[in-house]
Design brief:
Blueprint (H helix, E strand, L loop, with lengths): L24 E5 L2 E4 L4 E4 L2 H4 L8 H13 L11 H13 L4 E7 L2 H18 L7 E5 L8 H4 L21 E2 L10 H18 L3 E6 L3 E2 L5 E2 L2 H13 L3 E5 L13 H5 L5 E4 L11 E6 H6 L19 H16 L2 H17 L2 H4 L4 E7 L2 E6 L8 H7 L2 E2 L6 E4 L7 H16 L2
Parallel strand pairs: 3-15, 5-6, 5-7, 7-10, 10-11
Antiparallel strand pairs: 1-2, 2-3, 4-12, 8-9, 11-12, 13-14, 14-16
Helix pairs in contact: 2-10, 3-10, 6-7, 11-14
The structure holds pyridoxal-5'-phosphate.
């Protein structure tokens, strides 16, 4: 038995026997949130990577207030409204050329479920019902719903308990070539992908990937050449390409979308997290004309049978429009480039850190940086230690990372990287 906690809230990913009472957040402003009692913490993770404008951004808060006065919610079945229509047009404008159709849902996981169902039904409707499996990559993380768990890295442990319950899909090795690899250096990764496709293409509807940055599976970064090669393989083997840009979308890798680094249009692309600047849960699954047209037909099977209650929620769409306007008007890509320079200088160029015996690797891409430790035990206690320095860090396994809000100042980012380095060097 554990001591009863003061709240009945069951926390995510928490070990109930050892968990401590969660600190209570009472507010936030900019890159910091405030706890009951007055302690403020600089958020190095921008709340699981979604609060890209930081907390209490006046324009986003005002947009929600204004929309709440007009229309908080209405079903999207058989109806539409201006924020949903306008956001869909904006998403078509900013995403890679050819993604012309937008299906809304309420979270990244559900956005991925929509993508997977869409891919399987696409092949059904084209008379290829045998193509009903998905090809995913080792180190992948696509969410915690059943369909998503089945395409997460099966060995990493988080979902292995459910192996008997989940559908089985083939996996290809995680890409190993770094972001700046030459094309030749990516050829082994692509050969590994080809090898799985040669064996399984007749049963594969789509390849799923987090382009350039496999996030929760260990912040594994790879090359735009890998994305181009995957696109070519998909075309060769009649397999759809699905980009899960839930984490990478809206600037995290240094361009608006990771796909932009490679000039690749996936057949289906999923957005969430930064879509609403983190202010409300929402997701969008975009599809090309080719995918969309397969759903135009006479049979009952042509309807796409999915419709989350809160899809296209007006508050979420309205705040997403405001988030995008701020992103563009305030040159967030320029801000991200500046953050990237600080991350490189403070982490990547630090030879003492690189030589530390507990450090296995240091990687930086866009507004993302990770210090990979050799072992999870190397990071035991880091979150509590960082909190004492006024920084909210939450490592994933043996990866100590930051994905800050884009409004984080250079001084605050240096504070975050000092604390990340300090864990290894200054103790
Ligand atoms: C790449 C990726 N896909 C999907 C998800 C799932 O999103 P959600 O937590 O909104 O369901 C996440 C969440 O971290 C993610 O990083």
């Amino acid at each position: 038995m554990t001591a009863p906690l003061s709240s009945p809230v069951w926390h995510p990913y928490a070990h109930l026997k050892t968990q401590r009472p969660a600190p209570k957040v009472v507010g936030g402003e900019g890159p910091r949130f405030t706890l009951e009692g007055g302690e403020t913490l600089l958020d190095a993770t921008c709340s699981w990577w979604c609060m890209i404008h930081g907390y209490a951004h006046p324009r986003l808060v005002a947009a929600i207030r204004e929309q709440a006065g007009e229309l908080c919610h209405v079903m999207l079945g058989g109806l539409t409204h201006e924020p949903a229509d306008r956001l869909a047009r904006e998403l078509v404008r900013i995403t890679p050329e050819g993604l012309n159709h937008v299906f809304y849902s309420d979270s990244g996981s559900v956005g991925m479920e929509v993508a997977m169902k869409m891919a399987v039904q696409y092949h059904q409707l084209r008379g290829r019902p045998g193509k009903h499996r998905l090809l995913s990559l080792m180190k992948a993380y696509h969410g915690d719903t059943a369909g998503c768990m089945a395409v997460c890295d099966p060995e990493e442990g988080m979902h292995s308990l459910f192996a008997g319950y989940l559908p089985r899909h083939p996996f290809a090795p995680a890409p190993t070539a770094p972001f700046d690899a030459e094309p030749e250096a990516v050829s082994a990764d692509l050969a590994a992908l080809r090898e799985v496709l040669e064996r399984h293409h007749h049963e594969i509807a789509a390849i799923l990937m987090e382009p350039l940055l496999q996030a929760a599976g260990g912040l594994n970064m790879t090359s735009p050449h890998y994305l181009r090669g995957a696109r070519a393989l998909c075309d060769e083997f009649d397999v759809l390409l699905v980009f899960d840009e839930v984490a990478t979308g809206f600037g995290r890798t240094g361009r608006m979308f990771a796909a932009d680094h490679a000039d690749v249009t996936p057949d289906i692309m999923v957005l969430s997290k930064g879509l609403t600047g983190g202010y409300l849960g929402h997701a969008a699954t975009l599809a090309t004309d080719r995918v969309h047209e397969a759903f135009i037909g006479d049979s009952e099977m042509h309807a796409f049978m999915h419709g989350p209650t809160f899809m296209g929620n007006p508050l979420a769409c309205r705040v997403a429009l405001e988030s995008l306007a701020v992103f563009e008007e305030e040159d967030y890509l320029g801000r991200i480039a500046a953050l990237n320079r600080v991350l490189r200088e403070t982490l990547l160029d630090d030879e003492v850190l690189a030589a530390h015996p507990a450090v296995a690797d240091i990687r930086v891409l866009g507004a993302t940086a990770v210090i990979e430790a050799h072992d999870t035990s190397d990071l035991a206690g880091v979150a509590g230690w960082a909190r004492e320095q006024g920084v909210w860090l939450r490592p994933i396994g043996r990866w100590l990372y930051t994905m800050p809000a884009y409004i984080t100042t250079e001084a605050d980012l240096r504070r975050i990287t000092d604390v990340m380095k300090g864990w290894f060097l200054a103790r």
